Amino acid sequence: MFDNFAEGTAEGMFTGTFSSCSKLQNIPKGLFKNIKGAPKNHMFNQTFLQSGISGELDPDLFAGIIGEPAQQMFFGTLAYTKLSGEIPKDLFSGISGKPAKGMFEHLFEGNTNMSGFVPPELFAKIDNT
Q1: Mind giving me the DSSP string for the chain?
Q2: Which of 26, 88, 84 is nearest to 51 (CA)?
Q3: Global confidence as pTM
Q4: pLDDT per residue over 78-87, tens digit each?
């Protein structure tokens, strides 16, 4: 999907797209995989907030997003969903550099069905150096 976004991202491009879609059951494998480019502010802000998505997260969901972090790029993206299983360790592996304000704020908030541990590699490429 989104094959036409091969070389571009935009600020707020998926803000609230599937928010509160309570009957939405899952995220198609590779939904955002073909979106290439650097992160932008609010890119995935509340994209799936309070939706009915369940199951495990696709480790390649954000695979094409490569570059410096952006402000609130994943603010509440997966908050209050019915996701289960563990968080994939490479979910944000393409994002590296200095942190940005609120970049992962409320990302997994309210996901009571998720299990396991937060993988130490999840945010490994983001640092203040």
Answers
A1: --GGGTT---TTTTTTTTTT-TT---PPTTTTTT--B---TTTTTTTTTT---EEPPPTTTTTTB-BS--TTTTTTTTTT-EE-BPPPTTTTTTB-BS--TTTTTTTTTT-TTB-S---TTTTTTB---
A2: 26
A3: 0.89
A4: 999 999 999 9
